[in-house]
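Support request from a user on the community tier.

User writes: "When I paste my C-alpha cells into the form, the page sometimes reloads and wipes my input. The last time it worked, I copied everything first. Here is what I submitted, just in case something in the input itself triggers the reload:"
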C-alpha cells in the first residue's frame, strides 16, 4: 500500500478505514511517538541554528528574555498554527463535518491533523530539556504541564480530532514578535495584530468550537458514539480542559484590555522599543 500512495494521498490522509474507524495508513495509530521523537530532534536542530545568531544582532533588535528559545519558539508556533489552519480547511471540505466526525471516530482528513499534536509534544520535550539544562523553574513547570496534557491526548488517540486547536498559536507569534524592536510603525502593527488575533482565535473561535462539541454530545446518545470517545470520558475531559483553557484565555484577555486602557489614559508608556514597559527602563 505504502509505495502506491501519492503525495496528495498522503497530504489528504487517505486510506482504508479499519474496524476501529481509524484510517489504515502507516502514520496513524501508535506511530504518533515516531513523529514526536523526530519533532524533538528537529527542535534541537533549530536551537543549534539559533545559537549561531550573533548576540550583537539580538541586542541590536532588543530581543527580550530567553534568547536561546526565541527562534525555536517562533518557528514552532508558525508551523503549528499553519498546519492547524490547513487541518481546519480540510475539515470544512469534508463530507462529514466536525464535531460529528470526532464522535463517530472517523479517520482524519489530512496527515497534518495526525502530526500537529505530536509535533507540539516534541517541542514541549525540547523545551523541558532546555529548562532542565538551564535550571529555569518556570519553563520546567510549563513544559511538564504541556507535555503531560499532550501525551495523554496522543495516548488516547484523540490527537487528530483536536488538530485545529493549535491555530491559537497564531496570536502567540505576534506576542513573540513584541519582544523584538521592528521600528515604531511595525511595533504598533504587531501590537494590534496580537490583540485582534488573540480575541478572534482564543475568545471567539475556539470557545465556539468547544460549545459545538458539547452541544453535539448533549443532543446525541452515547451508544451512537464511536469507541474512541471511551463512553463519557472524552466529553468529561473536554469540559474540564475547556474550562481551564478558555478560562485562562479570558483572564489574559482581561489583563490585555486593562493594559491597553492604562496606555490610553497615560498611566503606562506605549511600547516604543519592542517591549511594553511600566515607565522608563532603569537598566539603561
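"...and here is what came back when it finally went through:"
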Amino acid at each position: 500500500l505504502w509505495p502506491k500512495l501519492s503525495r496528495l494521498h498522503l497530504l489528504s490522509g487517505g486510506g482504508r478505514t479499519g474496524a476501529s474507524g481509524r484510517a489504515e495508513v502507516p502514520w496513524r495509530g501508535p506511530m504518533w511517538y515516531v513523529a514526536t521523537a523526530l519533532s524533538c530532534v528537529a527542535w534541537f536542530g533549530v536551537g543549534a541554528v539559533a545559537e549561531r545568531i550573533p548576540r550583537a544582532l539580538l541586542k541590536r533588535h532588543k530581543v527580550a528574555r530567553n534568547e536561546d528559545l526565541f527562534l525555536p519558539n517562533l518557528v514552532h508556533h508558525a508551523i503549528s498554527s499553519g498546519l492547524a489552519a490547513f487541518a481546519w480547511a480540510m475539515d470544512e471540505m469534508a463530507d462529514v463535518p466536525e464535531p460529528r466526525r470526532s464522535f463517530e471516530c472517523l479517520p482524519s482528513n489530512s496527515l497534518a491533523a495526525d502530526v500537529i499534536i505530536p509535533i507540539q509534544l516534541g517541542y514541549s520535550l525540547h523545551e523541558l530539556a532546555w529548562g532542565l539544562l538551564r535550571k529555569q523553574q518556570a519553563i520546567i513547570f510549563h513544559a511538564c504541564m504541556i507535555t503531560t496534557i499532550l501525551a495523554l491526548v496522543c495516548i488516547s488517540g484523540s490527537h487528530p480530532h483536536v488538530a485545529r486547536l493549535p491555530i491559537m498559536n497564531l496570536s502567540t507569534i505576534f506576542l513573540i514578535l513584541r519582544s523584538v524592536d521592528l521600528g515604531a510603525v511595525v511595533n504598533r502593527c504587531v501590537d494590534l495584530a496580537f490583540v485582534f488575533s488573540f480575541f478572534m482565535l482564543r475568545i471567539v473561535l475556539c470557545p465556539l468550537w468547544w460549545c459545538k462539541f458539547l452541544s453535539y454530545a448533549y443532543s446525541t446518545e452515547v451508544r451512537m458514539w464511536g469507541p474512541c470517545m471511551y463512553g463519557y470520558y472524552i466529553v468529561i475531559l473536554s469540559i474540564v480542559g475547556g474550562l481551564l483553557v478558555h478560562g485562562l484565555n479570558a483572564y489574559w484577555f482581561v489583563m490585555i484590555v486593562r493594559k491597553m486602557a492604562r496606555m490610553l489614559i497615560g498611566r503606562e508608556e506605549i511600547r516604543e522599543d519592542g517591549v511594553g514597559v511600566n515607565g522608563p527602563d532603569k537598566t539603561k
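Agent notes: The reload is a front-end session timeout and is unrelated to the input. Residues 1-27, 272-284 have pLDDT under 50 and may be disordered. DSSP finds ten helices and no strands in the chain. Escalated to web team.
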